[in-house]
Design a protein that fits this description.
The chain is mainly β. It contains 1 helix and 22 strands. The protein has a 7-stranded antiparallel beta sheet, with no helix packed on it. Strands 10-22-21-20-17 form a 5-stranded antiparallel beta sheet, with no helix packed on it. A hairpin with a 2-residue loop joins strand 7 and strand 8.
């Protein structure tokens, strides 16, 4: 009888211990969950929010890495952690560690490259002929990725000859000595203020086609006006050129001058023309449309 009572007491004590352990939920540092990160892509220096459950509110217990780089925590609650994408971060998982126990997101976070905001100066666009004579001469090709003139047959985005601008997309127009089109390029003209155009979202891009450039040629038709009395070619105020590049990225352009060294008050009879100066913003991230 005594043996039976002892075994019952031992069993009861063991049951109570297991029940107590279950009530505590095991190791508290393992209880948290990581459910989402928003946004799912951002540049270095941008704040992102990690959502989940049961995060400890003691920041000393929590660390976060983004693509392998340790991120600084801006704010912390039981359901959200706000961090800044750190220098050195690469695309990959976001990991939250509590007391050394780490859990990662199921979706990969994408670290975006910064937008390129630059000015191109004195891009020469010579041509032969004109004034009733057949127009000719090679186009000067430009790459937004490198920010430079290029001789590449494929890695170019826009090309200049005189007042004509071609894109690397569509087909040849039938113009003499024009480059072959082999990319996805396109163009649109948007009315507005350059700095206020923040996205290419919803813009429809035209491509070069038989007998027609995506950016219309001729005075008052596209990007410029021509005054025959002063012999001046001047950009039309408020005309923003938006481009889809040869590899499907986006850029915006504000043409500032058609004259060498971009004089403030060009002389149409004395200053050398067919030299483009323009501001541009290029988004090097695939699938992204932000332009500011």
């Amino acid at each position: 009888m005594k043996t039976t009572l002892k075994m019952f007491a031992l069993f009861f004590a063991l049951f109570a211990f297991v029940a107590c352990d279950d009530d505590d939920g095991g190791d508290p540092s393992q209880n948290f969950r990581v459910t989402a990160v928003a946004p799912e892509s951002a540049t270095v220096g941008t704040e992102i929010t990690i959502s989940g459950t049961d995060f400890p509110t003691d920041q000393a217990r929590v660390s976060v890495t983004v693509g392998g780089a340790t991120a600084s925590i801006s704010s912390l609650s039981s359901t959200q952690i706000v961090v800044t994408v750190p220098q050195g971060a690469v695309s990959g998982a976001v990991s939250v560690s509590v007391d050394g126990n780490a859990k990662t997101t199921t979706n990969e976070f994408t670290v975006l490259s910064d937008l390129v905001s630059a000015r191109a100066e004195n891009i020469a666009a010579p041509q032969t002929g004109g004034q009733g004579q057949p127009v000719g001469g090679p186009f000067t090709k430009f790459s937004f990725e490198t920010g430079e003139v290029t001789d590449s047959e494929t890695e170019w985005d826009i090309a200049f000859r005189g007042t004509t601008i071609a894109v690397n997309g569509g087909t040849v127009t039938g113009t003499a000595e024009e480059p072959a089109r082999n990319g996805e390029g396109g163009a649109a003209i948007v009315d507005g203020i350059f700095d206020e155009l923040t996205s290419a979202e919803g813009i429809t891009f035209a491509q070069d086609a038989d007998a027609a450039f995506a950016i219309p040629t001729g005075s008052d038709n596209g990007w410029y006006n021509y005054n025959f009395q002063t012999n001046l070619v001047t950009p039309i105020p408020g005309k923003i050129l938006v481009f889809r590049t040869h590899d499907g990225k986006v850029a915006k352009v504000e043409i500032l001058s058609y004259y060498q060294d971009a004089p403030a008050n060009p002389d149409g009879f004395a200053d050398p023309s067919r030299f483009y100066t323009f501001n541009y913003v290029y988004n090097p991230n695939e699938g992204e449309v932000a332009l500011q």
